[in-house]
Amino acid sequence: MKIDSHQHFWTPGRGDHTWMPQDNPILNRTYLPADLAPLIRSAGIDGTILVQAAATTHETEYMLGLADASGFVQGVVGWVDFENPADAATLKRLQGHPKFKGVRPMIQDIPDDQWMLRDDVQWAYRAICDLDLTFDALGFPRHLDPFLTLLHRFPTMRVVIDHCMKPQIRDHSAANFQIWADGMTLLADLGAYCKFSALITEANPDWTTADLKPYVDHVLRAFGPDRVMWGSDWPVCRLRAEYDIWHQSARTLTADLAPAACAQIFGLTAQRFYRL
């Protein structure tokens, strides 16, 4: 089974995607299963993981409905309010849906880089562990240390690092690369998984696979193919390339690996992590 471990659907008219630039014609439009279906079919993708893109439980309910109707969405990563302990009941209820796999707070958009370590949000991590759900870690390189502390606190939590922690490839320097690489290695050493996704949107508009290769090579060394999963980040990837271009570039970047390793990256790792 080939899995796209990270994609989105949204309807801006719902009003809960507050991060979305209103003047961006690529992002500010509706994306639904009918838009993605021919793209994954052409790429030979069998199923996807649908990931939240709005900080509301209403969007999570909406995504679960789309997943039920689509056929190809194998799992949903939703959202609950970590600042509201009463949402423990919401998390328990969502767990009852067979396609609900875990949650993702939108940490990259929170001004306080230490937010994830606040006392008032720790209940959520305990609940994730108790319910055996997954945690998608969304952040930037400046969040590497707080995430490291979090993984030390909750060693049994099933964690995947979204988008390779968004290294700033467009501003590549040896120093910045080393800081990112060292932090990713430490997270890997604690058992985290990593999504091989969104690298093109962290690169320049005229990106090449050569720009991405040092980052991909390091992730594969640190985590190993059995803890790396490819994701399109569609439709956000369209800011730099269409689905097929990014998918083929990812295949090019892993062309030197054994077939068994590629099978992990492009399907089996996501299947195992999300228990599809």
Q: How does this model look, in words?
A:
With 276 residues, the protein is of the alpha/beta class. The protein has a single domain (3-273), classed as Alpha-Beta Barrel (TIM Barrel). Helix content is 40%, strand content 13%. It has nine helices and eight strands. The protein has helices at 33-43, 57-70, 87-95, 122-130, 144-153, 174-189, 209-223, 243-253, 259-273; strands at 3-7, 47-51, 73-78, 100-103, 134-137, 158-161, 193-196, 228-230. An eight-stranded parallel β-sheet has the order 1-2-3-4-5-6-7-8. Strand 4 (100-103), helix 4 and strand 5 (134-137) form a beta-alpha-beta unit. Helix 5 (144-153) runs parallel beside helix 6 and helix 6 packs parallel to helix 7 (209-223). It starts with a strand and ends with a helix. The model has no long low-confidence stretch (mean pLDDT 97).
Stretches where pLDDT is under 50 for at least 5 consecutive residues are none
Biggest β-sheet description: 8 strands, parallel
Q: What do we call the CATH homologous superfamily?
A: Metal-dependent hydrolases
CATH structural class: Alpha Beta
Average pLDDT, rounded to a whole number, is 97
What distance lies between the first and last C-alpha atoms, to the nearest angstrom? 10 Å
* Order of strands, widest sheet: 1-2-3-4-5-6-7-8
* Oligomeric category: single chain
Which CATH architecture?
A: Alpha-Beta Barrel
Number of structural units classed as domains: 1
- Report the β-strand fraction as a percent range: 5-15%
Radius of gyration: 17 Å
Q: Which H/E pattern describes the elements?
A: EHEHEHEHEHEHEHEHH
Count of helical stretches: 9
Overall shape: it is globular
